[in-house]
From TrEMBL:
<dbReference type="InterPro" id="IPR018535">
    <property type="entry name" value="DUF1996"/>
</dbReference>
<feature type="domain" description="DUF1996">
    <location>
        <begin position="116"/>
        <end position="147"/>
    </location>
</feature>
<dbReference type="Pfam" id="PF09362">
    <property type="entry name" value="DUF1996"/>
</dbReference>
<feature type="domain" description="DUF1996">
    <location>
        <begin position="9"/>
        <end position="108"/>
    </location>
</feature>
<protein>
    <recommendedName>
        <fullName>DUF1996 domain-containing protein</fullName>
    </recommendedName>
</protein>
């Protein structure tokens, strides 16, 4: 992925509400390891109001308090917050901008119920990230800037608070955004019961 090539020039649609946002946002997939050692991808519910998309995340852009002028990311900007190699709380504490929550009840934003006979007999924690982290401390989020032209800067200059209610940005209906998907490019099974994590990733921690 050449940083000189902007995502809008390679895309035919966007799954974002804003038509000018062709950025790439990524977080890891969670797996459940049953007592027999096999793995199953945990079902991911769509982000708020995008439930029909069967997955995804919610991204917020906020203006800075106090009326500061903000400069938008520039062409080619990429960012990773967190470190997939981290396996302890002290090291993970360096990263303040990313977190996740496992919700306990359906009325707190749904949950996934796993059959008790699949739970490890020793009652050990059976969830892990797709990059092999069982501790949860290696969780990370990746970002590739892809706002079209100067659209994000125009929103900042207009002091939209928050940007998700900005008249300066063209939008599309959520139902239309949910139809924008990308075909799988690697012929590998990621669903169903698997003998190993996709890519043959080793479980560490």
């Amino acid at each position: 992925m050449d940083p000189a090539t902007e995502p809008p020039s390679r895309s035919t649609c966007t799954s974002c509400t804003f038509l000018d946002d062709f950025s790439n946002y990524w977080t890891a997939v969670m797996y459940f390891q049953a007592r027999n050692g096999t793995f199953m991808r945990a079902k991911q519910l769509g982000s708020l109001f995008h439930e029909a998309a069967n997955g995804g995340i919610t991204i917020y852009y906020f203006d800075a308090p106090g009326g500061y002028n903000i400069t938008a990311f520039q062409k080619g900007f990429r960012m990773r917050n967190g470190d997939p190699t981290v396996r302890d709380k002290e090291s993970a504490s360096r990263f303040k901008g990313i977190t996740y929550t496992c919700l306990a009840r359906p009325d707190t934003r749904y949950t996934n119920v796993t059959s008790e006979e699949l739970w490890p007999e020793d009652e050990s924690q059976p969830f892990l990230w797709s990059f092999g982290d069982r501790t949860g401390y290696g969780h990370h989020g990746d970002y590739i800037f892809g706002w079209k032209g100067g659209s994000l800067q125009r929103a900042f200059d207009a002091k939209c608070k928050p940007i998700l209610n900005c008249a300066k940005l063209p939008t599309q209906e959520i139902s239309v955004a949910n139809t924008c998907t990308k075909n799988r490019t690697v012929a590998e099974e990621v669903d169903g019961w698997l003998d190993e994590l996709p890519g043959g990733v080793e479980v560490l921690g």
